[in-house]
């Protein structure tokens, strides 16, 4: 632990994913609070490639890794459509779970996972790194300080260019599609600033008949008090990741909100009636931050219910967007 009083959390990884290679495993192996003890793949070669760089034992087969007594927690960066099955298997094996976004695709799946985690006294946390970047606390403070007055509306957009054929995000059976892969970010951001009492008023999902997935979408949500959240997302777009809060006295806008590089110094743009101000915020590292937060939550046990509720609410809103778009 950071306090130097506890041994590192012993973590196993299910799947030699790109995100694990580029971001999460470098953050985990740099942390004194984590020991990567095993990395599982469907194939030996890939597992060995990962353990050669990050350490731990190469394991062939995800279930084999779950059977190990020396693994306390698992990181699951499998394709979205496999998250439910493997989160349940990991919990059944007594492991805490850091589950890549979208943690699950439906409320039913979320309920099964949260029920099992609660019964077993284990943590299951959806791995939304962006929430752990300090820039959002700076925005929240500006809003709390009244810099834009009373919040009237929230806007968020996340779009990425078309993906190569064969990418997991383009395959319906693996949980592909724009809502599951990128739409989940604006939804999570709306919850961050407007709270969980949001309802979906309307939604559109653009379905690509050839691929069999949605490639773009928009949704309108609202709070009971009438504050709106207008969300746009897609995987057939020029890159864009932003949100804005519009209030009675001004507007705040922030870009590169969901995938800021470690060295990126965010620029908070504040528009008021008679002037525009740009504030440069400190760079931050959201991957090391989420690793530290996960270890803290496992150790304390204090946040398990909060993470469970968050996972359920996120899945409920995904269901509601699909239903409003006529694709439930
Ligand atoms: N939080 C973030 O910032 C962030 C960023 C990017 C992605 N993600 C999420 O992380 C997860 C993985 O994304 P990724 O881009 O890293 O994916 P990826 O490189 O395609 O990795 C997925 C892994 O899943 C395993 N797998 C098992 N069955 C598979 C199948 N039928 N087809 C393909 N792979 C299969 C493979 O590992 P083995 O071959 O080793 O078994 C593969 O390496 C997704 O849920 C994605 O949404 C999160």
UniProtKB/TrEMBL annotation:
Residues 137-253 form the GFO/IDH/MocA-like oxidoreductase domain. Keywords: Oxidoreductase. It comes from the Bacteria. Pfam families: GFO_IDH_MocA, GFO_IDH_MocA_C3. The keyword Oxidoreductase applies. Residues 9-126 form the Gfo/Idh/MocA-like oxidoreductase N-terminal domain. Gene3D superfamilies: Dihydrodipicolinate Reductase, domain 2, NAD(P)-binding Rossmann-like Domain. InterPro entries: Gfo/Idh/MocA-like_OxRdtase_N, Gfo/Idh/MocA_domain, GFO_IDH_MocA-like_dom, NAD(P)-bd_dom_sf. The keyword Oxidoreductase applies. GO terms for molecular function: nucleotide binding; oxidoreductase activity. PANTHER family: OXIDOREDUCTASES, TRANS-1,2-DIHYDROBENZENE-1,2-DIOL DEHYDROGENASE. Belongs to the Gfo/Idh/MocA family. This is Predicted dehydrogenase.
